[in-house]
Design goal:
CATH superfamily: Vaccinia Virus protein VP39
Distance between the termini: 36 Å
CATH class: Alpha Beta
Shape: globular
Structural class: alpha/beta
CATH topology: Rossmann fold
Number of domains: 1
Largest sheet: 7 strands, mixed
Number of helices: 7
Order of helices and strands: HHEHEHEEHEHHEE
CATH architecture: 3-Layer(aba) Sandwich
Helix content: 25-40%
Length: 198
């Protein structure tokens, strides 16, 4: 995560990918599992831009989990947004602590993707949701992005939608992948914990 140590101010200043309108759309995707007062975990949430928008749109508590303290320093002060330093693969939370997990443009940075998905299934309650927003690595432009990420010391481990759905399914998170625009796609799935009440 060396790149993000020094890039944190730039991400805070120029990294607002999502508008309020975008966040309202994402909130609609999450509304089936996140009621007002609910709990969302934003994994790899960086400087918290999306977390603040989702907290307002859903009237929910959003915890930003990110391994880079320099990024967390830029999380805005907000009554319902909390920043925690930690790794996706070893989360410092109890089982079933959240109604939903959101991962936006971060999954390809995880060095142990199966381990991270196991943690999603652990920390989300039975019947809760997992939402991953990612880029399909196919195509020449994406090949250049992958090479660029690797040159910066990042894993650049982008999964195709089919690979993402298969990985989630192996950990008991059943869902679907849907193309959004250009190379963007979303995985949205539900955590199934047999024997637990939803």
């Amino acid at each position: 995560m060396g790149f993000f140590n020094w890039a944190a101010p730039l991400v805070r200043r120029f990294g607002d990918r999502f508008t309020e309108l975008d966040a309202n759309g994402i909130a609609e995707w999450l509304r089936p599992s996140v009621e007002p007062g609910g709990r969302i975990l934003d994994v790899g949430g960086g400087a918290g831009q999306l977390a603040v928008l989702l907290a307002d749109a859903l009237n929910a508590s959003v915890t930003v989990l990110d391994p880079t303290p320099q990024m967390l320093d830029y999380v805005p002060t907000h009554d319902q947004v909390h920043a925690i330093s930690g790794m996706a693969e070893v989360m410092p939370f109890p089982d079933s602590a959240f109604d939903a997990v959101v991962v936006s443009d971060a999954f390809h940075h995880f060095r142990d993707q199966p381990g991270a998905v196991m943690e999603f299934a652990r920390v989300v309650r039975n019947g809760g949701q997992v939402l991953v927003l990612e880029l399909d690595p196919r195509g020449i432009l994406m090949w250049l992005i992958v090479v660029g990420e690797k040159l910066l010391g990042e894993p650049g481990a982008f999964l195709t939608p089919e690979e993402m759905c298969a990985l989630m399914e192996r950990q008991g998170i059943s869902g679907r992948c849907e193309r959004l625009k250009k190379a963007d796609y979303r995985f949205i799935g539900v955590v199934d914990k047999p024997g637990e009440v939803a």
